[in-house]
Prior knowledge:
The strands form 2 sheets. Strands 3, 4, 5, 6, 7, 8 and 9 form a 7-stranded mixed β-sheet that branches. This protein has a two-stranded parallel ribbon with strand order 1-2. 47% of the residues lie in helices and 17% in strands. It is of the alpha+beta class.
Amino acid sequence: MDLVGASASDAQLVAAARSGDSGAFGRLVAPYVHELHTHCYRMLGSVHDADDAVQETLTRAWRALDRFEERGALRAWLYRIATNRCLTAIERRSRRELPTDLQSGNAPIAERAWLEPYPDSRLEWMRELAPETRAVARESVELAFVAALQHLSGRLRAVLLLREVLGFSAREVATLLQTTVAGVNSALQRSRAAMTDRIADAPQRATLTAAGEESVRALARRYTAAWEAGDVPAIVAMLTADATYAMPPLPTWYRGPDSIRAFLTGAAMTHRWRFLATGANSQLAFGTYRWDAEHGAWLSGGLDVLSLRGNRIAGVVSFLTADLTTFGLPRRLPT
């Protein structure tokens, strides 16, 4: 199978792909795959569901390439397919949540689908964005924002993301979602209001840059040292007054320094720990390792994602079953 040269235009790549050249198709869509995956994660709250949605998007795009109008924008066409795949998935699957979202009257715990963390390694594509656009894009993958999105209907999620995060015009979004400009504007107002209400109640709402890079590195060092020393007072001293601590897939969660102190003293600190820093959801994160005497090694205890407010910790979400290798970390540490 002949591949199209590096200087080939999109039109040439489309022509080659239509003739059956899968290599040309790969070259055509490659610039958009990573941002499409991030979009699907925002919509679905799951890395694995995003994997499926992107794969379905590319399969459908390959099969429908003869219907793609070269005068149209390839990026917009791919986003239309990806968004529709996500909307279909949302209709079929349970809403992704965090333990802090739990309210009485909701579905039984056994039927819950938990929000998944997103590796920062998948956000490298954002480096090419303009600074202001990059800041919006990174904030839009923070846990608090993605968790709040999951409480919107699929269509409201799509409108908010396409308009406010991805920068499509109201007319473009209307075309993508096969609705009217008035319908898009109405949906945007409703989604903004709903997100404002939910984000306002969430203590975890800050990016790494908000506290400054050096301040974050210093906080990471103190946090790691406190956990590895079993120093509960030092950990509690880093918390905000309304800090939360959650551990999906366990539904139990804690709010405030006193509650978190009691949990740390009575449960977590009955073990020895090692922490390795990483990044998830554009936030400070740690791979946690608990000493296992039987195996003579530090075994994975999960991934802790921290949300910061100034130079304090406003939230910790400890994803107990996270695969640390997807965050560039080993599953276990030697002695």
